[in-house]
Specification:
Layout lengths: L11 E3 L5 E3 L3 H21 L7 H18 L18 H17 L7 E2 L4 H24 L6 H24 L5 E2 L1
Antiparallel strand pairs: 1-2, 3-4
Helix pairs in contact: 1-2, 1-4, 3-5, 4-5
Length: 181
C-alpha cells in the first residue's frame, strides 16, 4: 500500500468511519492541531535530557493520539472497534493535575510573567504549550458546530498548564532561572 492516494488532491479528506470534508473543516483543523501538538511533544522529548518526565510525556502522546481518533470520527459507533483504545477519561485530567502539583512543589511560586526559553528542553516545552493553546482554540471552534465530550477540552486545557509548569521545571532542574517579563 502506498502512502499517497491522490484522493486529497482536490482539497478534501476522508474521515474515520466514512465521509469526506474539506481540509479546512473545523474537525480537520481540530485533529490536525492535536496531531501537531503530539509532534511538538515528540520534539521536546527528543531534546536532552531525554529522560525528563519521559513516562508522563509518552502517556500524554498516547492520549493525544486517542483524542485525534475521536475527533476524526464524527460517527464513533461506526468505528467502535478501531476506537477501543481511544479513551480519555476524567481520571486522566486528574492525573495531569497531580503532575502539575508535583512539579509546582519543586518550583518557587510565580511572582511575574515568564518569558519562554531557557534550556532547549524548556523552550520546546513552551513551544508545545503554544501549539496546545491553538489546538484548544480549534476545539472550541469545532464545539460551536458539533458536540464534543467535555473531557477533551478539559484535558487539553489542563495539558497547556502542565506544559508551562514542565518548562519551568526543566529550567529549574538545569539551574537556569526563569526569564521574567
Amino acid at each position: 500500500m502506498s502512502i499517497y492516494t491522490r484522493t486529497g488532491d482536490g482539497g478534501e479528506t476522508s474521515l474515520l468511519g466514512g465521509g469526506r470534508v474539506p481540509k479546512d473543516d473545523h474537525r480537520v483543523a481540530a485533529y490536525g492541531s492535536v496531531d501537531e501538538l503530539n509532534a511538538a511533544l515528540g520534539v521536546a522529548m527528543a531534546v536532552e535530557p531525554t529522560g525528563f518526565e519521559r513516562e508522563l510525556l509518552e502517556d500524554i502522546q498516547h492520549d493525544l493520539f486517542a483524542i485525534g481518533g475521536l475527533l476524526a470520527s464524527p460517527e464513533p459507533e461506526k468505528v467502535s472497534k478501531v476506537l477501543q483504545k481511544a479513551v480519555v477519561s476524567a481520571q486522566r485530567v486528574d492525573e495531569l493535575e497531580a503532575a502539575i502539583d508535583r512539579a509546582e512543589a519543586e518550583l518557587t511560586p510565580l511572582k511575574a510573567f515568564v518569558l519562554p526559553g531557557g534550556t532547549l528542553k524548556a523552550a520546546h516545552l513552551h513551544a508545545a504549550r503554544t501549539v496546545c493553546r491553538r489546538a484548544e482554540r480549534c476545539l472550541v471552534a469545532l464545539r460551536a458546530h458539533e458536540e464534543l465530550p467535555p473531557v477533551i477540552l478539559q484535558y487539553v486545557n489542563r495539558l497547556s498548564d502542565l506544559l508551562f509548569v514542565l518548562a519551568r521545571l526543566a529550567n529549574h532542574r538545569a539551574d537556569v532561572p526563569d526569564r521574567r517579563w
